[in-house]
TrEMBL record:
Keyword annotations: Endonuclease, Hydrolase, Nuclease
InterPro entries recorded: Endo/exonu/phosph_ase_sf, Endo/exonuclease/phosphatase, GPI-anchor_lipid_remodeler
GO CC annotations on file: membrane
Residue ranges of domain Endonuclease/exonuclease/phosphatase in the record: 8-236
Biological process per Gene Ontology, one example term: GPI anchor biosynthetic process
The protein's name: Endonuclease
GO molecular-function terms, A-Z: endonuclease activity
Length: 260
């Protein structure tokens, strides 16, 4: 029987619950200052995350003034009962903000690598390698790409080159571009990855019209199902995917150990 894994990617907007465009103006102060609603919202997000094996987070704070000094990746790992977690700080504006990507995992990563993406400083990818019983690794990368077209094109080229290093690869996160992006389509075409679905619209969460969030997998991995989760606790909706490893390939089993 083929081994399956359930994945989720979620841009959580540092725990801010946006419900309309005007919130970007009238709640903009929440990106700078603490607010008790943030922790309540993170608790609700953690309830959703419990259903998944590996979760990629974008726009989490690593512990600063605005998050009441809570490392949000660690908080979601504890509340979601994940034994392994890792956060990558990409823009450190301490003590005011620490912009990060986050990884939550039930299987234990064999190795975690931080990549600094090309373009202006502040964009990165955290990549976790999970050991497989055929001697290879399943690599899962979590990204949050740039808003600007030129920087994003460089970052997509970088990801395309990375696909050559891993026969089993998952890339997930907020790509800040949809199916209409030539750069994204070129990257998918060159790498042979699949999972790009124009119907999986995640932004804005209150009226999703753009598919900015994606989970892409390399060819040996099968996509069993993919969907947008109707869980509007950020300005993005989360996207989920169930994947299946090839016949005879399985994640090595690890004992439950303390979180990373």
């Amino acid at each position: 029987m083929r081994q399956q894994l359930s994945l989720l990617s979620y841009n959580v907007q540092v725990g801010i619950a946006s419900r309309q465009y005007s919130d970007y103006l009238f709640q903009s102060w929440k990106h700078l200052l603490p607010h008790p609603e943030r922790v309540v919202n993170l608790g609700r997000i953690a309830q959703l995350l419990r259903q998944f094996d590996v979760v990629g987070l974008q726009e989490v704070d690593a512990g600063s003034l605005r998050s009441s000094n809570i490392d949000q990746t660690r908080y979601l790992a504890v509340q979601g009962d994940f034994p392994h977690w890792y956060r990558q700080v990409n823009r450190n504006l301490a003590p005011f903000a620490q912009h990060s990507n986050g990884l939550l995992a039930r299987p234990r990563p064999a190795r975690i690598i931080e990549h600094r993406l090309p373009g202006l400083p502040g964009r990165g990818m955290v990549l976790a390698e999970f050991a497989l019983d055929d001697g290879e690794v399943l690599a899962i990368g979590i990204v949050h790409l740039a808003l600007g077209w030129n920087a994003r094109r460089l970052q997509l080229d970088y990801l395309s080159r990375l696909t050559r290093a891993y026969p089993y690869l998952v890339l997930m996160g907020d790509f800040n571009c949809g199916c209409g992006s030539r750069g994204l389509r070129d990257m998918v075409s060159r790498s042979g990855m699949r999972g790009l679905d124009c119907e999986l619209k995640t932004f804005p969460s209150w009226r999703p019209r753009h598919n900015l969030d994606h989970i892409l997998v390399s060819r040996p991995i099968e996509v069993v199902s993919a969907r947008v989760v109707d869980y509007a606790l950020s300005d993005h909706l989360p996207i989920s995917m169930r994947i299946e490893l090839p016949v005879g390939v399985r994640l090595l089993e690890f004992p439950c150990e303390p979180a990373l």
